[in-house]
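Key idea: predict the complex, not the pieces.
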Amino acid sequence: MTALELIRLAISRLGTSRLRAVLTMLGVIIGVGSIVALVAVAQGATSGITDRIQGLGTNLLTVSPGATRNGFTRLALGSATTLTTEDAQAIAAASGVAAVAPELSTQKLVIAGIQNTTTSIIGTTPAYLEVRTYTMWQGSFFNQAALDGSLRVAVLGSTTADNLGLDGSSIGQTIQIGGIPFHLVGIMQPKGSSGITSQDDQVLIPISTAQHYFVGGDKVRSISVSVASASQIDATQGELTALLEQRHGTNGTNDDFTITSQAQLLSTFSSITGLLTVLLGGIASISLVVGGIGIMNIMLVSVRERTREIGIRKAIGARSSDILFQFLVEALVLSLLGGVIGIVVGLAASLLIGQIAGWGFIFNPLTVVVAVGFSLVVGVVFGVWPARAAARLDPIASLRYE
Amino acid sequence: MRGTAFAAGGQGPFGNPATGAPGTDASVSAPAVIELRGITRIYSTGRLEVAALRGVDLDVWQGDFLAIVGPSGSGKSTMMNIIGCLDRPTAGSYRLGGTPVEQLSDDDLARVRGRAIGFVFQSFNLLPRTSALENVATPLLYQGVSRKERHARAQAALERLGLGERVHHEPSELSGGQQQRVAIARALVTEPALILADEPTGNLDSQAGADVIALLHELNASGTTIVLITHDSDVAVQALRQVHVRDGLLVQ
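Result:
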């Protein structure tokens, strides 16, 4: 018998009890469907997070102050006091560094006309735009002259501008930040959430202005560094560590700063999402195994019910192997058909979830191949026993079986 | 070889002129389809050994119509199983169309059943929820005949038995007599050397039973060898000749 004949025979036999065939497939449909959906969701989430982390900036290194050490007396503002604007200038001079943006932040009430909002006021340098990969929507970013002169100029994030009812026509207007008048010079394009905080709800002013009016001193909260190329990230990270250790008089065991790279952030997130994928996939696989056992169960019942049919087939010339393949192919058709329906259900579910979560639909052909492979394996593993039982039946006893 | 085997086994059981056995001349000229020599079949169930057949010699010739008659428990079912290659003898030799069957593998036996023997059973044994056409075509499936040819040959066999209008009916939609005719069509479709009918009239009313016997006569007249197994002497007398089985032996 050819494979085609076997498949045709299997489908015609399964067609005689459609409801049972569908119920038998249900386990595999649920198993394969949940594997496909969960893998697609995990991939969607991973790519969404990856996009956002990469959206923070290009080849970004972030220098943050380390933990406050015993023996220090000045603990004001937590530990955010070990980095200075001089550190930022020294980093800018290091090799492999494309741009440096020190940051200082505080919360202030911002008033524009009759609207007001309380938001982050970030003091930085013109390099911020490049380092954090923002683009301007209206006006322009403040320039080096504004920084040098500690001018009262401000650039707004898109959300902040919306909250204050400001748009392109507002450029040049005066707004109040913490009670001090500032000149609005630009509004930035929206960038989306970083997953932790909004990157669009902030007011940017020159760092010298922030130090002068709001914070005092020359301390900075963090320093964002854009490395010239991705291949230099590790080397630059080491170089900056050595530079800052030298400047701060520390030696690796008592560093008062931390340098993190996007790659580290990414690998942290991807290890979490990877773990989640394995965990969810594992749970879904259990339902696939249960589905396989369902197929085996029904096939065993079927062999018993169809004992007489098996006897007849043997009497009219079927070899044991013909019977074996007939039942094996029936199990395979059940599991494969279930697998295909499961893939469709799973893809539909992941499309829906992707739409709701906002990362779109990620179709991975590998998932389909793996899911079909899984269903085949389930069909063979759980189909062999019933098929062997059928093939081994004695024709004489089977013919007399009632 | 065949001649001596015939001489040794043929005279005893078949020498009964009352049953209308073919004459000696005809027997010698026609080749033997079945040659049983000293067939013994012992069933072992634990410590108990039951001899269902105890040394049976039998020849059936091309074009023969033989009834094997015996009460239940006589061993006639065991004989049918062995002749039908569903079972193997414990001892003795069986040649079917000249081929020594006891040397064949299980797969070869299946092939012999499919090609050389057509079965007709008391309970019809059609595949349920399967059309008459597919039922008749199934033996050809196991011979690797193409779908198109299978259906053409099955159609022809059903038409020959007057079931041309019923090819797409399932067994549950057919009367007992029609079901048995489908079963006979299935036995015929492979053009076997032998049709083995086990109580073919047992589940039929007398009219349908008579039709089936008439049909077997018709097939026999066109050259098909038929072995009929029955406990019913009224059915048996309609065969060309009879052998009787009692306690695992052929008797007069």
